Amino acid sequence: MATGRVDLDGNPIKPMTICMIGAGGFIGSHLCEKLLTETPHKVLAVDVYNDKIKHLLEPSTAEWADRIQFHRLNIKNDSRLEGLIRMADLTINLAAICTPADYNTRPLDTIYSNFIDALPVVKYCSENNKRLIHFSTCEVYGKTIGCFLPKDSPLRQDPEYYVLKEDTSPCIFGPIDKQRWSYACAKQLIERLVYAEGAENGLEFTIVRPFNWIGPRMDFIPGIDGPSEGVPRVLACFSNNLLRGEPLKLVDGGESQRTFVYIKDAIEAVLLMIENPARANGHIFNVGNPDNEVTVRQLAEMMTKVYSKVSGEPSLDSPTIDVSSKEFYGEGYDDSDKRIPDMTIINRQLGWNPKTSLWDLLESTLTYQHRTYAEAVKKATSQAAAN
Ligand code: NAD
Ligand code: UDP
């Protein structure tokens, strides 16, 4: 059946069935939303949780109700997985433990989740000749070459020493006792396995390396929709501090640099991969926004300004405080110094470019955070004070 949709080469796109593992997470929820509202494709949504896609599963009268099925299963130990992969034309694997606070404190769970648990997914796709889009991470690049140069070396300013390229940059991790790298290393090995399945057994694959995708529904706010002692990724940590009127904590001075991309821009790139297999198969893609680079300290300052604008509340006189990584994350933490994605391959294959500036994406995300959480945080704080 033709749908009126055409791919980048002008060919009609046929409706497909997609087995999306990890569909209940941050990226999965946005991808499900996009597929249901803008395409004719069907989604077999697999996850252990579905809170972030509840609005897509109910009510049963929604116009897309017959195009999404939720399967609550843990891919570690569920024999239904292969059947779902066989029913689908394409499998997208998003399932992972992917919050840095876990990498050095739960290294075994991190390695099992990112490598061992992903193995059957790769195997079932390969054995059943099914296409696979596997989510890896920009963290597989580890540290930049530039960070090992002397502090005053002019080469540190040369993009050759810091821009991260899929086909030429090395993967540079710290020593084994820096367990931060357990995640990056497990992701690297599963990338190599997927690549080898492609080379030796003809698996049709695409590997995605997200560079700090952020937006609504990312992670959780501790004590509201996640554990009070939990440590989410930086967007949710800083949102939590802003909602509670606390200073934002800068780990080791907040000197590390990141590029942030708006989730809605990034999802456009994933949809292009889904609908253009001839251009996406066999490739590894950086997906990020090289123009949105800041230090973590600058991110904190910008989020403080934006939150004050969207909430109408004045910011603190001292909006940030410094904490050591040992205090914040515990023993074995280490950090990526700088992450700028090279965009040559994704530009050439899919013509994709991000659009949203850091200020704009923070404004829409913090408006969402304020609307969703401000009341609940106020209630929780006044209850705690009363006790
Ligand atoms: P997320 O934690 O919000 O989503 C992951 C989902 O997978 C969760 O809903 C979780 O319940 C599910 N899951 C985990 N283990 C499972 C299992 N055994 N069985 C069934 N479901 C399971 O994370 P996200 O930000 O949406 O990330 C998705 C993928 O993208 C991950 O592979 C992550 O490593 C990668 N990634 C994301 C970013 C980013 O910027 N968000 C950056 C780098 C890499
Ligand atoms: N970070 C911080 N304060 C926080 C949370 C994170 O300074 O409350 C820093 C962290 O040390 C890292 C950066 O912010 O340098 C990004 O952290 P994130 O958890 O988003 O993951 P990463 O980009 O390292 O994968």
Automatic annotation (TrEMBL):
<protein>
    <recommendedName>
        <fullName>UDP-glucuronate decarboxylase</fullName>
        <ecNumber>4.1.1.35</ecNumber>
    </recommendedName>
</protein>
<dbReference type="GO" id="GO:0042802">
    <property type="term" value="F:identical protein binding"/>
</dbReference>
<keyword id="KW-0456">Lyase</keyword>
<feature type="domain" description="NAD-dependent epimerase/dehydratase">
    <location>
        <begin position="18"/>
        <end position="288"/>
    </location>
</feature>
<dbReference type="InterPro" id="IPR036291">
    <property type="entry name" value="NAD(P)-bd_dom_sf"/>
</dbReference>
<keyword id="KW-0961">Cell wall biogenesis/degradation</keyword>
<dbReference type="Pfam" id="PF01370">
    <property type="entry name" value="Epimerase"/>
</dbReference>
<dbReference type="GO" id="GO:0005737">
    <property type="term" value="C:cytoplasm"/>
</dbReference>
<keyword id="KW-0520">NAD</keyword>
<comment type="similarity">
    <text>Belongs to the NAD(P)-dependent epimerase/dehydratase family.</text>
</comment>
<dbReference type="GO" id="GO:0033352">
    <property type="term" value="P:UDP-D-apiose biosynthetic process"/>
</dbReference>
<dbReference type="GO" id="GO:0048040">
    <property type="term" value="F:UDP-glucuronate decarboxylase activity"/>
</dbReference>
<keyword id="KW-0963">Cytoplasm</keyword>
<dbReference type="GO" id="GO:0102765">
    <property type="term" value="F:UDP-D-apiose synthase activity"/>
</dbReference>
<dbReference type="InterPro" id="IPR045869">
    <property type="entry name" value="Arna-like_SDR_e"/>
</dbReference>
<dbReference type="InterPro" id="IPR050177">
    <property type="entry name" value="Lipid_A_modif_metabolic_enz"/>
</dbReference>
<dbReference type="GO" id="GO:0071555">
    <property type="term" value="P:cell wall organization"/>
</dbReference>
<dbReference type="InterPro" id="IPR001509">
    <property type="entry name" value="Epimerase_deHydtase"/>
</dbReference>
<dbReference type="GO" id="GO:0046982">
    <property type="term" value="F:protein heterodimerization activity"/>
</dbReference>
